[in-house]
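About this split. The held-out portion is used to measure sequence recovery: a designer receives only the structure tokens and must propose an amino acid at every position. Recovery is the fraction of positions where the proposal matches the reference. Here is one held-out target exactly as it appears in the evaluation file.
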């Protein structure tokens, strides 16, 4: 391929046990503990014998607000693990790859991963798990011209407040962030009240629309927001009131929820409508979700990808890796080659669209990275 591949989903971050751009370590740890309560991809394990446990012991299941947090001596451990204690037993979840000693991913290490895989540029997504990192992203972009584009981090529970809007204006202005990252899980800090599609959030959505920058969304299949379809209905209400905002569904459509025993997809009407008629795109990012359940090159994923492309066209999709997290299942290079080497159902133009052109159309700042890197 004679064009610069763009990874629309990657992370850099300092050690997880630090404040990492938050006001203090405790605020960062609060977000991490809530995220590990919601995380379902990797199982909880008992530390003394590695046994899988099903009990969710980090948060009160009926109180999604900060008051529901359980005191479990939760924190970042070593070798990619978050750890805690409950009932006299120690537990962990292998959220990051085991080679990650202090749970950090420096920018120069990600550049080495990208060089090895043949990736030109990465979009840096700004999740609370890793920190409040717009400053770090800006510094990385200057240190590695042409290699990184950063997203602003939103405090979702307070996104509509004047204080938060001023901070976001600084992130997209002084720091040069090229889009917004919004995870509905972050609304736990207000107990999910108000909801993000309610009129109270209109100052934020107006700010986003006027900026001309896209929103990268993380939605859940089951949360206080509701089901994945409920999440999509909230998005549809926002699209209806603010039609000029462009949206990307991070992690892509959870097609495993909508596949029968023969892997035929039957998507809910709300997803069909958003992807066919609204300014909504989705990531193609299967290894991070499926790597624990099937082996490379994920043949079942290709059955789903092909159906999505046949239904909605290649222009709706962007490739992403979720590096470095994906390394708990496969290498960074394999998170690309499972798609590039095993997608003979794609034309060259469709492959280029997914690997580059659609990202440039969504984030015009990416076209400037060509000049910066030469």
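Reference sequence for scoring:
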């Amino acid at each position: 391929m004679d064009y610069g591949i763009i990874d629309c989903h990657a992370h850099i971050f300092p050690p997880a046990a630090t404040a990492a751009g938050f006001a203090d370590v405790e605020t960062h740890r609060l977000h991490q503990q809530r995220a590990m309560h919601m995380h379902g991809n990797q199982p909880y394990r008992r530390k003394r014998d590695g046994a899988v446990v099903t009990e969710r012991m980090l948060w009160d299941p009926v109180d999604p607000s900060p008051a529901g947090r359980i005191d479990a001596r939760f924190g970042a451990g070593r070798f990619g693990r978050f750890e805690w204690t409950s009932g006299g037993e120690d537990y962990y979840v292998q959220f990051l790859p085991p080679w990650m000693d202090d749970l950090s991913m420096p920018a120069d290490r990600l550049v080495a991963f990208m060089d090895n895989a043949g990736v030109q540029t990465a979009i840096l997504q700004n999740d609370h798990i890793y920190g409040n990192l717009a400053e770090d992203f800006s510094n990385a972009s200057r240190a590695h011209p042409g290699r990184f584009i950063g997203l602003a981090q939103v405090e979702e529970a307070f996104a509509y407040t004047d204080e938060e809007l001023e901070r976001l204006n600084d992130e997209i202005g002084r720091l040069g962030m090229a889009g917004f990252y919004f995870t509905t899980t972050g609304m736990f800090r207000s107990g999910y009240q108000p909801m993000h599609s309610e009129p109270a959030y209109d100052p934020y959505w107006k700010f986003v629309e006027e900026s001309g920058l896209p929103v990268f969304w993380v939605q859940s299949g089951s949360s206080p927001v509701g089901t994945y379809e409920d999440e999509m209905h909230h998005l549809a209400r926002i699209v209806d009131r603010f039609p000029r905002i462009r949206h990307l569904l991070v992690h892509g459509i959870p097609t495993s929820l909508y596949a029968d025993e023969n892997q035929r997809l039957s998507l809910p009407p709300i997803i069909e409508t958003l992807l066919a008629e609204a300014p909504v795109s989705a990531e193609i990012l299967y290894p991070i979700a499926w790597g624990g359940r099937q082996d490379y090159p994920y043949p079942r994923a290709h059955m789903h990808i092909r159906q999505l492309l046949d239904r909605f066209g290649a222009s709706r999709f962007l490739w992403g890796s979720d590096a470095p997290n994906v390394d708990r299942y496969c290498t960074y290079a394999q998170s690309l080659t499972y798609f590039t080497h095993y997608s003979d159902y794609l034309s060259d133009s469709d492959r280029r669209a997914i690997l580059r052109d659609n990202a440039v159309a969504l984030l015009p700042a990416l076209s400037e990275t060509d000049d910066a890197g030469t």
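Annotator remark: Residues 25-94 form one domain.
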